[in-house]
Specification:
- The structure is a homodimer.
- Chain A has helices at 22-27, 40-49, 60-71, 85-95, 144-147, 163-178, 190-195, 197-206, 215-221, 227-234, 275-288, 293-307, 319-327; strands at residues 4-9, 13-19, 35-37, 54-57, 75-78, 100-101, 112-119, 125-132, 150-156, 182-186, 210-214, 240-244, 250-254, 257-261.
- Chain A is an alpha/beta fold.
- The A-B interface holds A 47-48, 50-57, 66, 84-86, 89, 92-93, 95-97, 111-112, 312, 314 and B 47-48, 50-57, 66, 84-86, 89, 92-93, 95-97, 111-112, 312, 314.
Chain lengths: 328, 328
């Protein structure tokens, strides 16, 4: 019997959210919409030039598991922080939602990782991530008791940027499948896909049951400009694929089954950070609760719409109340 | 010639902003609307029981100087953080606005102070402050070059809770007046006034040129239930008194001159934290730029209305643009 509905493995990060002009991105050669990895000194130099900011727990998978728990799911998180103030913040914000987070903090070495999130006036976000302690996630941190007892183990593609984290990922997938559970992956970032395409392709084909990707990521994976071609390519490569397209909604594919899910209307688009993370939260909540795939997609859309209507990638509204009409 | 328009001296704090039910306040015997000082272990115990939070630079005087700088004023801040992550955050958010903040960080001892800000559903805020490094502010930290060269030195009443900070306060007032500059004080908190009434009364009578107080504070100072009586009492005790009354607006008193300032309409009252701080920012900006007192009060109202329409006590909108019509 599964103790957890969802176990997430990801980079444990605190977001430093600041509004920026596009000229700032140009001046620092930052590709708009992407996530780039930076070292401590680059992160510091960039922060020094940023305007006022707000600190909010983040991390792609952290956001997903937070949203999942806010919906009422039983969640666990595996990831690495240091025993510092930001580590405290990250840990607190998951525990406050009832998420089990038992990975021990590092007690020396780099500080808790941060992601400088630069939000443009058009609500697009560009991220400069200093992984810090998150870098120290190793296969030993993957607790078999967690992964084997979770209906779904969810992994963020960003982990692929560091070999030990990638090994942790593979170990988790093997443990989960060995226990008859499902494994889910989000491709995370087009540039991350570009950096690790062969490995992502192998994974999707052989190890992933539920895949999340946006248009840029899925077309990068299959090296095509055509969303339709990418969609045809992914069908059959994993049990379920959720392909998100921002305001154009999403597609949920499962064998011959195809669902077109409209995006929720968002009155004031503020900050697109976390849209994909919360889509996954809603979808996986529906999936682990046994709802049909169309309903799972609808839950994903509702949660994504909530998180892009304010700054920060963690939900602010009562998600349970928000999705209740869709479940009625 | 004054290099600064405003020098602020206050507790350097990072706010940990969380929404709470009133039952949480009751369960922990927290007087709604007040600021209580807590020790490190109490702060930790309370934080452990709080829901998810967001971290934003704060501190009453820090908020004022941030708003002042956002309006275009030249500001300096004197206060104490530690060289830790929250200290970095506090320092960054002032520097990003062009505020000079040269007080050296402590390198050992308690961590940077935090204020747990519990925001109720009616937007009222209750604060539990762990002063941490802010406690270590001493008279030696008051740089004469800053205070003597600022048109106005602004002090937060909260400093009165700790003797060395109080001495720093008195030193600053003497230096400022010795250089022919103005000294301003905010009473900060009714309970703080209760704790130090005789000293506050002496100060207001002899050392303060511009006083800020809300209704609860000014009636506490003069031990009366009547706002009108408190208002009569304060007239003549300092050059200018600004008495704020939330949605009922404010009064600006200066000798025989009395201005009634209406509150700005706020569409969605979200979090009242920082209302007084930002009123002071707007008023003092107007004052240091030579505007008449009615206009100064109007600027205060506009800035206060901005900050209570979102979470956090630092302005989020472009304050310059917001006050432009009032200055046209």
């Amino acid at each position: 019997m599964a103790d957890y509905d969802l176990a997430g493995i990801g980079n444990a990060l605190v977001d430093v959210v600041a509004r920026t002009e596009d000229s700032f991105l140009d001046d620092h050669s930052l590709p708009k919409g992407a996530m780039i990895l930076v070292e401590a000194d680059q992160s510091r130099a960039l922060y020094d030039q940023l305007g006022t900011a707000v600190e909010i727990s983040g991390g792609s998978c952290g956001n997903t598991i937070a949203g999942f728990a806010a919906l009422g799911g039983q969640g666990a998180f595996i990831g690495k922080v240091r025993n510092d103030q930001f580590g405290d913040v990250f840990r607190h914000d998951l525990k406050a939602l009832g998420v089990d987070f038992a990975t021990p903090s590092t007690v020396d070495g780099p500080s808790t990782g941060i992601s400088l999130i630069l939000v443009s006036t058009d609500a697009q976000r560009t991220m400069c991530t200093y992984l810090g302690a998150a870098n120290h996630l190793s296969p030993e941190d993957v607790d078999p008791n967690v992964v084997q007892n979770a209906k779904v183990t969810y992994l963020e593609g960003y982990l692929f940027d560091r070999p030990p984290a990638k090994r942790a990922f593979v170990r988790a997938a093997e443990l989960a499948h060995g226990a008859g559970q499902k494994v889910s992956l989000t491709l995370s970032d087009k540039f991350c896909v570009d950096r690790h395409r062969p490995e992502f392709l192998g994974l999707v084909e052989h190890h992933i049951d539920i895949l999340f990707a946006n248009e840029a990521e899925i077309t990068a994976l299959y090296e095509t400009d055509s969303f339709d071609k990418a969609m045809q390519a992914v069908r059959g490569h994993c049990e379920i694929a959720c392909l998100t397209r921002s305001e154009r909604g999403s597609l949920v594919l499962c064998g011959d089954e195809v669902h077109v899910i409209d995006a929720e209307t968002v009155e004031h688009l503020v900050d697109s950070t976390g849209a994909g993370d919360l889509y996954a939260a809603g979808f996986l909540y529906g999936y682990t609760q046994g709802y049909d795939l169309a309903k799972c997609g609808r839950l994903g859309s509702i949660c994504a719409a909530e998180v892009i209507s304010h700054y920060g990638a963690r939900p602010e509204s009562d998600l349970k109340a928000l999705v209740a009409p869709a479940l009625a």
